[in-house]
Prior knowledge:
Elements lengths: L6 H4 L3 H9 L22 H17 L4 H12 L3 H10 L2 H9 L10 H4 L7 H12 L15 H12 L1 H8 L5 H15 L2 H5 L9 H21 L16 H8 L7 H27 L1
Helix pairs in contact: 2-5, 3-4, 5-9, 8-10, 11-13
Amino acid sequence: MGTSLPPAVRLLPVATRAATVGSNKAFSVLHRPPPKYKAHVPLTNIEQGTLAVGSAILSLFNPRRGDLIATLGETTSTPYFIYRLRDAMLSSPTGRRILRDRPRVTSHTMSLARLRTFPPDSVGRAYASWLDRESVSPDTRDNVRYIDNEECAYVMQRYRECHDFYHALTGLPVVVEGEVALKAFEFANTLLPMTGLSLFAVVRLKKQERSRFWNTYLPWAIGNGLRSPEIINVYWEEELETSVEELRMRLGIEKPPDLRNIRKTEKEARKAAKEKRERLGSIAAI
Length: 286
């Protein structure tokens, strides 16, 4: 990409330079260029902006819509952030191997039956157990469509497919409170705008949940996300037999307070308080 570029562009950092060169979208919806990879949909700048704003607003009201979250992630990651993440992979020996091998995380590449036989403290067993507990599948991740650069599209696909490993590593459950906490960690670690924008979902939390997020999980997310090396460079397929605790220590990630148990305890306390009120009401009515 060297001598043919304008001098001003050649002085830019690699990620910014690539983004600047790749951001020229001089076409119309009637003369759309051919796709650069399977599922690719080239967008005009207006289309990209419209999808970004629309998916951001709609996902705030329905954060369980994975397609909206995926669209938001893709349309806000260019022209800079996904290139920065790609360059972080290129700067790591393991990241470069991942980019070369292009592994995919699906039910075809990850035998859950086999992972369930791994030691209880292993990454593979934790991943399979988390999927079973949350009733989710590795096949629920949408294919990347709106990122023009094919290599960067894979980086986004990799991030997306490894998201459940982040849940398994941290123990955060698939509820709005857990997802917001994990997105805060991902934002500090990856700088992808979608992960930061997802924090607006904190307004949907109950008062006690919001207080817990601001006082406990946000400080944990920012501290651990900044301290840990880019988690995109973890070759999860090679860590399946590794102890979860060992991997956390290697990455410098502290396990957050068990949100699932906290919520369970609170639910039981509310139920007990309700039953007590009902008993007192029955006695008073006699």
